[in-house]
Each structure stands twice: as C-alpha cells, then as structure tokens.
C-alpha cells in the first residue's frame, strides 16, 4: 500500500470513531445526533389544564413541519392530543379559550390551497369536535360556536 492509501484509511477510521462517539454522547445526554426542532407556543389555561401548541421541524429537512396540541395539569408531563398528529397542517390559529370551550383553527393541504377546520373541545376530557370552515378566519380570530 502506498502512503496516500494508508493516510486515507487512517482518516476514515478516525472519522468513523468520531461519529460513533458523537452519537453515543448525544444519546447519553438524552438527545439524538440529528434531532428535530421543537418550539412550544405560549400556553393558555382552560378547564384546569394548561394548553399549548408545539411545532416540530423547520422545513429544511425532508420530513414535514407538524403541529401538535399539548396539555398538562400542574407539573405533570405534557399529553399529546391525537387530533393534531396529522402531519399535514400548513397553518394554525389558536388555541383560544373562553366560555364556549377551547378552539383552534388548522389549515390542511388541499388541491385548491388551504382547507380550514375548527377543532373545538367543550371540556378538557371530551373528544374534539372538528368542523369545516368556509375560509380562513378573518383577522386571525376564531369564530365562536354560534357563528
């Protein structure tokens, strides 16, 4: 073997060891080597729980940006509500909490652009009610149950 081949082999071995050790360190501290971006939006208090929206991803990776609806009581761990695990939301407005319940509007991908739906919780432990909206809510405000 020539000197160049030996040097290249040595470099590849050192690079492989570096990647393995970096992955082991990332795993040891509770993360991953190539983690996803997660941002929690400000939470609102409603029906004895704290509610927040979380966005995962940044649009720079092959996987899509996803939205999740989270809630928790006090210092308990966050609970992910399955209404938000579609993975195709393009936009989100809310959550808004008032006497009618907790509401948020989500825009899904459709062939003609965005298709808006309103997700409403009447109580924290109730199943969500999903209704179609004719268009994007105006002024970024959500309609009430009577509208």
Write the layout of secondary structure elements.
Layout: H1 3-28, E1 38-40, E2 44-46, E3 49-56, E4 66-72, E5 79-81, E6 89-98, E7 101-110, E8 113-121, E9 129-132
Plain-language structure description:
- The chain is an alpha+beta fold and 147 residues long.
- It has two domains: 1-34; 38-140.
- 18% of the residues lie in helices and 39% in strands.
- It has one helix at 3-28, and strands spanning 38-40, 44-46, 49-56, 66-72, 79-81, 89-98, 101-110, 113-121, 129-132.
- The strands form two sheets. Strands 1, 2, 3, 4 and 5 form a five-stranded antiparallel β-sheet that branches. Strands 6-7-8-9 form a four-stranded antiparallel β-sheet, with no helix packed on it.
- Strand 7 (101-110) and strand 8 form a beta hairpin.
- The longest helix is centred in the N-terminal third of the chain and has 26 residues, at 3-28.
- It starts with a helix and ends in a 15-residue tail after the last strand.
Helix content estimate: 10-25%
How big a fraction of the residues is strand?
35-45%
User: Strand count, sense and closure of the main sheet?
Assistant: 5 strands, antiparallel
Compute the gyration radius: what is it?
Answer: 22 Å
State the end-to-end CA separation: 79 Å
Tell me the count of domains. 2
Supply the number of helical segments.
1
Mean pLDDT: 78
Q: Give me the count of strands.
A: 9
> What oligomeric state do the depicted chains represent?
single chain
Overall, the morphology is elongated
Order of helices and strands: HEEEEEEEEE
Low-confidence stretches: none
Summing up helix and strand content along with how strands pair, one would put the structural category as alpha+beta
